[in-house]
Amino acid sequence: MAEPIAPRRLFLPTARQTNWLLIITGLSLGEALYVRYQAMENSVVSLACQGGLGTWLCATFRLAIVLYNHQVFGGIALVGALLHLMRPSLILFAVAIAAAAFGVVMHNTDLSALAAGLLILSFARPVPTPA
User: Fold this and answer.
1) How many separate helices (H) and strands (E) can be counted in the chain?
2) Integer CA distances (angstroms), 69 to 2, 8, 56, 62, 109, in order
């Protein structure tokens, strides 16, 4: 008689892991909102930063502009989500969700939204069994 095959466990973070994921996502989202609305959308700060002001906010502003122009936020989110989809890992999920949150706020929505969709699909993916 054949042994019954046990169903594989799906990727599902524990309550503690979910809380950490929420904190990481919230911090990423908060930083993106701060940079966007306090530096990029604020014309006084934006003009001062473009004029060469040397504060940490202006350095973050310039870095965000460079990364935005090269679709880095969405790219990191998509790569992390694809790797997580292939081999589920909490670290990859955290990196992908943080980058996707940052990318959506910074208007890298194409790749970031695709990454968010892949992360949602990853909840249906079984966790690899240890060898």
Assistant:
1) 6, 0
2) 58, 42, 20, 11, 13
Contact predicate 32/105, CB 8 Å: yes
Per the CB < 8 A criterion, the answer to whether 82 and 101 are in contact is no
Q: Which residues contact 64 (CB under 8 A, 6 or more apart)?
A: 35, 36, 39, 40, 106
Q: Could you give the CA distance from residue 64 to residue 60 in angstroms, rounded to a whole number?
A: 6
- Distance between CA 68 and CA 10 in Å, rounded? 34
- pLDDT (tens digit, 0 to 9) for every residue of the chain, 131 residues total? 667 776 777 788 899 999 999 999 999 999 999 999 998 899 999 999 889 888 998 999 899 999 999 999 999 999 999 999 988 889 999 999 999 999 999 988 999 999 999 999 988 877 766 65
Token pair in block for residue 82: 């694809």
